[in-house]
Amino acid sequence: MNLFNRDIAELASDEKLMPWLTTLLPFLKNWTENNNHGDFKPWCRHLDKLSGLSSSHQKFESTIEIGQADEISIGRQKEITNVLKQFQPWRKGPFRLFGIDIDSEWRSDLKWDRLKDHIAPLTDGTVLDVGCSNGYHMWRMKEAGAKQIVGIDPCLHYLFQFLAVRSLAGNPHGIHLFPMILEQLPLDLPAFDTVFSMGVIYHQKSPFGHLEHLKKLLKNEGQLVLETMIISGDERTVLTPEDRYACMGNVWCIPSAKAVLLWLRKTGFKNPRLINISTTTENEQHRTEWGCTESLMDFLNSENSGLTVEGYEAPRRAVFLAEKP
User: What tens digit of pLDDT does each residue of 78-123 get?
Assistant: First the structure.
């Protein structure tokens, strides 16, 4: 459980999150001791190669920037590059680490730009990021002044990407990623001022169950930031793909914007509102050396970019805000 020792120590001193330890500790112990992913042990060894290296040069802005090229030798930079490439694909970013530019598949800064001026202030807050990927947005939350940031995502290579970046940043306090899904969090933990669920709800078999769980994790008057793909239509319009959507096989339902607002009202959130709709373009999602071999343009109809390869509406994304009463 060495990967999480520092996280456990911090949560143990946090009055709001300490009750979580009764279930989190055995979960992490079991996860660590029984992890049979073939890359787990090699990646732990690669991560160790970054220990002892950190820099005071840190900017958590559009590009997460840690360190500068002239702080290390060319040989050390090549060694770091090799470590970071072990954890590919880098889907979220961008990052610049000791002069190494990680051009991720997604320009995650564009999503942050669409919501940052609309959300409640994060200053000194306790924040949860559900389906946080490699933690890019958590660094933006830290820049915005959040005191305690918890991310959850079950994907192993996202965890190691996050741990690599955090290590290079000198392992700052107040930012954590645990390899789990929302359903593995307790229902009696109303500890968070803000809960982010971005790009998650359309992967859920029960979107109402997802929203109910998110609400139970919020403090009273806490804010939900919900980002999702949407389609055109009224309150009754929800797309359930027959097989795949934009080549994704784990998409259960894509609602209209009006349907999302109805869902939020029906699950007891107050003041649900739509703050942004955007069409996903190649500027935001694209193939890169660090990312995936296929990306947005491979998922769209070659003759009509307004449609997916399956014939559905091409991806549009929307951001919603609501509060827990």
Answer: 999 999 999 999 999 999 999 999 999 999 999 999 999 999 999 9
What pTM, to 2 d.p., does this model score? 0.96
Query: What are the φ and ψ backbone dihedral angles of 209, each rounded to 5 degrees?
Result: -60, -40
Question: How large is the C-alpha radius of gyration of the chain?
Answer: 20
- Whether the CB-CB separation of 47 and 164 falls below 8 Å is answered with yes
- CATH for 2-323 is 3.40.50.150
Helix then strand then coil, in percent of the chain rounded to 5, is 35, 25, 40
Express each pLDDT in 273-311 by its tens digit.
999 999 999 999 999 999 878 899 999 999 999 999 999
What residue segments make up the domains of the chain, in order of their start? 2-323
**Alpha-carbon torsion angle 33, 37, 137, 151, nearest 10:** -30
Q: How far apart are CA 103 and CA 193, in angstroms?
A: 32
Phi, psi of 304 (to 5 degrees): -150, 100
